[in-house]
């Protein structure tokens, strides 16, 4: 089943900095573009790190007194009078995703690392975009009619080999409701699991019944056919 990829929702026009970009210019870039962070890249557009408002504020907080030795994020001393740069302020290595990664994978990466944005890389590890939490949440604006069509075509017909007349599918605000009767009990959790993985699905409500309870079949006995059989054997 196809999932929307990061490249389809990312912002291509990326505001970025270089390791030598000074503190004040970074602050101006963040304020001018209304963003809270930006990637730091080298001359080949390879991402070296990310510098954010938090990094700038952390630097200010570390300045204990006016005569304190000037230091960057790493704690190294720098020459008096030389401005602090993006290379010294940034968080490195950066947490990134690739343009062909699924939106779901990008969302899991954001949550796991507690970040608001992710630099997006191409196959050569070069910066090609930026994706934010707002971009990913846009997937859930997918029309209910589109979700229903995908459930019927890709899950019921192609994956489970069910007739469209067997199961009734309704979708409201991203919540998919299934009613009807399937052949085997074990088809129900497979159907709901596959549907939950579709882009834009908020939840799945199953009101399905079954004709045969195959939950106690021994491994050597005939089980489900097709994808459902493989899915049950591997999970």
Automatic annotation (TrEMBL):
Organism name: Streptomyces chitinivorans
Region (Disordered): 59-87
Keyword ATP-binding on entry: no
SMART domains, alphabetized: CBS
Keyword set, alphabetical order: CBS domain
Pfam families: BON, CBS
Annotated BON domain residues: 143-212
Record-given protein name: CBS domain-containing protein
Keyword field contains Transmembrane: no
Domain CBS: 10-68, 90-147
Lineage, broadest ranks: Bacteria, Bacillati, Actinomycetota, Actinomycetes, Kitasatosporales
Gene3D superfamilies: 3.30.1340.30, CBS-domain
